[in-house]
Amino acid sequence: MNKFVPAPSKSISEFDPRCVEAADRYVKANQALKDRSAWAIRMGCTLNLFLWHLDAFQKDEDPVPLFVEAFDQASSVLENVATSGVLQGLYPTAADDGDVDYEGMVSGLFSDVWQDMTDDIYFEETYQFTRLRFEKSGVDPDELFRDKVILDAGCGSGKFSHALARFGAKKVIGIDIGERGLAFARKQQAKVDYGDRVDFRYGSTFDIPLEDESIDLVWSNGVIHHTLNYEKCVEEFYRVLKPGGTLFLHVNGCFGLYELILDKLREACADIPSPLFQMYLKLLGDNSGRIYWIMDCLFAPYEWKSKQQVIDLMDKYGFTDFRQMLRGIDSDPIEMVSRGIPYATVKYGDAQVKFLATKPA
Fold first, then answer.
1. pLDDT in tens, 100-125
2. Which of 255, 271, 286, 321 could form a disulfide with 290 if both were Cys (CB 3.0 to 4.6 A apart)?
3. CA–CA distance from 170 to each of 142, 165, 190, 195 (Å)?
4. Is 331 exposed, middle or buried (0-12, 13-18, 19+ CB in 10 A)?
5. If we measure between CA atoms, which residue out of 160, 345, 135, 120 comes closest to residue 250?
């Protein structure tokens, strides 16, 4: 079970109270369905409620009434099931069996998803989307990564490690705590001629197994907001960087209504086994990239920090010359915020917070 559900880091008072009330009603409706045979309808409602935002957030209108309506409708479905008498209590949910291995849960979740990732998404899409995101923000990725010794901190499946090598890195060291993910990454190395410049190792971003001042560039892409010690990660990045070295840090900022959706949907389905939900997505025919995205959003805990909190944290540990990357592919929330689409900040807040920063020489 996925019993670890962290408290949201944003004050609940910062969200529109109508949205909070509707979201809490949905959580309560899920928690009232204690029979495992209700998992199917709960998964369907949660998935469709999550995907609802893709269309709703494209509309040039206030998203708050739309949010309330969607959550209320989903709650009504589950409440009707609870009162219908159709559930006979034949499959009661098992009792909580104690503390959760947090790191094992997170690494296991992602490892399960990565096994189904196809090569076109793993290699080509990752490389092309990375190039596009950097170039739209005015950064030449070939120049940035060429001939560098790079640490991919929390490399997961290794797809970004391989992209960095393809951009011309001298060496990429990918570390992660997920043994299955590392094994998958090593298998992928044999498929490309630049794989011999990638070295995958077991290691934690809290305690990076590298010497002080040994790395030209640290790449941390959407990782440390999933950890139990966000700040320690930044401290470690500074330690291993050479003077004059570069940090690329991508985390999720405070994310507006999207943050509330993710926090409440994770709370609502916390007792549903993540492998079951993943299999449900596969049976629906979703491709591996979409499955990875949905599972990340619905099952991987987040620590949300505002853009200013991220800047303050990097400043605390000595980083300078901050450069925020404000562009992305069309579907990236940061692209929508930067282009100023109507209600973008209500929907997405800070969106993705991406910085290049320097360790002073």
1. 555 555 555 565 666 677 899 899 99
2. 286
3. 12, 7, 18, 11
4. exposed
5. 160
Q: What are phi and psi of 344, to 5 degrees?
A: -60, -40
Q: What integer is the mean pLDDT of 188-205?
A: 97
Report how far Cα 354 is from the mean position of its chain's Cα atoms: 13
Pairing assessment for the beta strands 171-176 and 149-153 based on DSSP bridges: parallel
CB neighbourhood size of 119 (10 A):
12
pLDDT at 107: 53
Q: What is the pLDDT of residue 106?
A: 56
Q: Read off the pLDDT of residues 290-341 as tens digits, 9 standing for 90 and up.
A: 988 999 899 888 899 999 999 999 999 999 999 999 999 999 999 999 999 9
246/120 Cα distance (integer angstroms)? 29
Q: Over the chain, what is the mean pLDDT?
A: 91
Report how far apart, in Å, the C-alpha atoms of 90 and of each of 126, 150, 174, 220 are: 45, 54, 47, 46
Contacts of 142 (CB under 8 A, 6+ apart): 167, 168
Q: Report d(CA 323, CA 250) in Å as an integer.
A: 12
Q: Tokens for 333? A: 């929330």
Contacts of residue 216, Cβ cutoff 8 Å, sequence gap at least 6: 148, 149, 150, 241, 242, 245, 246
* Side-chain half-sphere exposure of 359, counting CA atoms within 13 A: 24
CA 236 to mean position of chain CA atoms: 21
pTM of the model: 0.88
> How far apart (Å, rounded) are the C-alpha atoms in residues 292 and 125?
14
| Angle, alpha carbons 157-163-166 (nearest 5°) | 140
Cβ-proximal residues to 334 (8 Å cutoff; 6+ apart), any chain: 326, 327, 328, 348, 351, 352, 354
Extended strands (E) in the chain: 149-153, 171-176, 198-202, 215-221, 241-252, 320-324, 352-358
pLDDT at 255 (0 to 100): 95
Look-up: residue for tokens 């934690």?
A: 204
Q: Which helix (H) or strand (E) holds 226?
A: none
